[in-house]
């Protein structure tokens, strides 16, 4: 039986299964757009054999066998996005995890971002959810029929007759105007809904987590019921946005507390894409959470102090990577790690030029294909496949070897 990370003989790692659109239900019923990346080999979701329990307390052989079988289950990876970043941004990294490491990968858009918009997009997602509930979504095995190749727009078009004059261009109201959502909703409603999706379909499979920026900030806040299968976490550029910790504190203060409130009031949402062609548009409340947290030295725990007991209880091992050329904050990642005092953790800062022989990584660049050889195949592979968190020296040595090999 195939195990995660070991494709069957004759299976080419790059012969990918096409990613499938999925619908994820948040705890409050809001529908989120997601994507399911399946590995090329059969998915292992249950133990192949059952072993009786140990005859006495000193006989650990059965337990050891059971542990081996659990480790053989295909791993599931949840990728939680950065603020105002769509799930499609993580496509290449997701493809690496699924097609080359043999893992199941789930990406999603938080409410108010990308395809998880309110209004008509919710209707389209409801059609997709109904399609999945009719049995088209693979549930834990590679032989289940795949989701039909229909886009959300196609499903919506089937259900809605064309209106007169539909061919004429009309200026539509931005669906984020008046939409109430905060980053707290992303944490307490959306992310638990994603874990629920995994628990329902892959109830026994070990789960891994990738948190990019705010995607890491919010994880420890959720109830441990949802993270009970979570084995390890990888944090990427999970730094503090406390304004004094930012690379340009005065600009950050002006941006958070002077300029943006005026712009957001004018537009009714944060017009990151609409006005500045930077990042994505955000619900007004999400930006307000971001700037509110940024006024506290403790960042998210300053803005939501009721989360501290959950952070204290969080014990899942965390491996955090951050970069000296981070566009926002290049030094504050260790402060975020200190907010989880009882978790095993390693925080490694890297200089792209000195350690990786790369011009730039920044806040977003880890997920570019340029980091595949020097970070994905070294630090990520070691952490997700072997549970080993490489230190700076080890990453540098492997990155230099990759550079030398590339010149041959």
TrEMBL record:
Biased composition (Polar residues): 43-64
Ranges where the record places region Disordered: 1-21, 41-64, 138-171
SUPFAM superfamilies: alpha/beta-Hydrolases
Name of the protein this chain belongs to: AB hydrolase-1 domain-containing protein
């Amino acid at each position: 039986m195939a195990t995660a990370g070991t494709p069957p003989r004759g299976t080419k790692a790059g012969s990918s299964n096409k990613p499938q659109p999925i619908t994820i239900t948040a705890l409050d019923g809001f529908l989120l757009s997601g994507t399911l990346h399946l590995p090329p080999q059969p998915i292992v979701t249950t133990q192949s054999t059952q072993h009786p329990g140990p005859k006495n307390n000193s006989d650990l052989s059965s337990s050891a066998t059971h542990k081996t079988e659990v480790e053989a289950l295909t791993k599931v990876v949840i990728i939680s996005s950065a603020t105002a970043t769509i799930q499609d941004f993580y496509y290449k990294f997701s493809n690496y995890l699924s097609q080359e490491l043999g893992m199941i990968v789930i990406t999603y858009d938080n409410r108010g971002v990308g395809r998880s918009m309110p209004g008509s997009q919710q209707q389209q997602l409801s059609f997709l959810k109904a399609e999945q509930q009719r049995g088209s979504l693979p549930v834990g095995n590679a032989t289940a029929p795949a989701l039909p190749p229909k886009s959300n727009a196609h499903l919506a078009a089937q259900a809605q007759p064309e209106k007169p004059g539909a061919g004429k261009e009309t200026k539509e109201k931005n669906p984020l105007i008046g939409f109430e959502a905060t980053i707290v909703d992303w944490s307490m409603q959306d992310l638990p809904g994603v874990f629920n999706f995994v628990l329902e379909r892959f109830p026994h499979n070990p789960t891994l987590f990738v948190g990019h920026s705010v995607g890491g900030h919010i994880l420890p806040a959720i109830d441990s019921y949802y993270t009970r299968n979570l084995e390890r976490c990888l944090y990427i550029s999970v730094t503090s946005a406390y304004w004094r910790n930012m690379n340009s504190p005065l600009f950050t203060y002006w941006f958070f507390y002077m300029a943006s409130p005026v712009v957001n009031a004018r537009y009714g949402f944060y017009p990151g894409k609409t006005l500045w062609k930077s990042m994505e548009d955000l619900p007004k409340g999400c930006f307000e959470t971001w700037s509110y947290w940024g006024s506290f030295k403790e960042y998210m725990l300053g803005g939501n102090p009721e989360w501290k007991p959950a952070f204290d209880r969080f014990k899942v091992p965390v491996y955090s990577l951050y970069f000296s050329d981070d566009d926002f904050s290049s030094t504050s990642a260790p402060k975020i790690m200190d907010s989880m005092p009882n978790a095993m953790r390693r925080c490694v800062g890297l200089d792209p030029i000195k350690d990786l022989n790369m011009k730039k990584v920044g806040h977003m660049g880890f997920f570019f294909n340029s980091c595949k050889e020097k970070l994905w195949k070294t630090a990520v592979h070691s952490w997700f496949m072997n549970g080993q968190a490489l230190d700076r020296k080890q990453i540098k040595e492997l990155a230099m070897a990759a550079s030398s090999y590339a010149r041959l």
